[in-house]
Design a protein that fits this description.
Length: about 180
């Protein structure tokens, strides 16, 4: 859906809803998950992966590609690490003719990381979709566990506040009764 997302004027929310529907359908087809995936979850996951990619790309730029151990770096780099010339040619082809397009196309693009040379290690075979789905399910399970832990912590906080309130109330009653007895 690159072309749809690259449109200058588009409803990203609608596009993410389409992505969520496709992921949900794929998960249900494999029998992996019966809970629908939400559009905002897909958008958030993409933003997080993009941030992780950029962090690792910067690391690779400073220390070399061999210093990056993130399993999705190479596939993400194949998509996002295009050379400057490729990006400028693509930008020029998309935007030529429009005044705004010419202004944007004249901007310089600095790639995050140069495309690895042929001498670099051969990229691993792409992961089968099942592995990606399994990873997604594991991440969802971890997220659910974190939410359960967070809920338990909040419940303990509430219980502690209630205990404190009862103790203060009890002290106030004891202290109030003692004050009345002195009078």
């Amino acid at each position: 859906m690159d072309q749809e997302f690259d449109q200058p004027v588009c409803k990203k929310k609608k596009l993410w809803e389409t992505v969520a529907e496709r992921v949900t359908a794929k998960l249900q087809a494999t029998g992996s998950l019966d809970v629908p995936v939400k559009a905002y979850e897909c958008d958030l996951k993409w933003r997080n992966m993009l941030a992780t990619y950029r962090k690792n790309a910067e690391r690779a730029k400073r220390l070399g590609v061999q210093s990056v151990h993130w399993e999705f770096f190479k596939p993400m780099h194949e998509v996002l690490g295009k050379s400057r010339e490729d990006m400028e040619a693509q930008r020029g082809a998309k935007l030529s003719g429009a005044k705004l397009g010419k202004a944007i196309a004249s901007k310089r693009f600095t790639p995050i990381l140069p495309t690895p040379s042929a001498a670099a290690a051969a990229p691993p075979a792409p992961r089968p979709p099942q592995d990606v789905l399994q990873l997604y399910l594991e991440l969802q399970e971890r997220k659910m566990n974190m939410w359960a832990q967070q809920k338990a912590l909040e419940e303990r906080k509430i219980e502690a506040i209630n205990n404190l309130a009862r103790a203060i109330s009890s002290l106030a009653q004891d202290h109030g009764g003692a004050a009345l007895a002195k009078e």
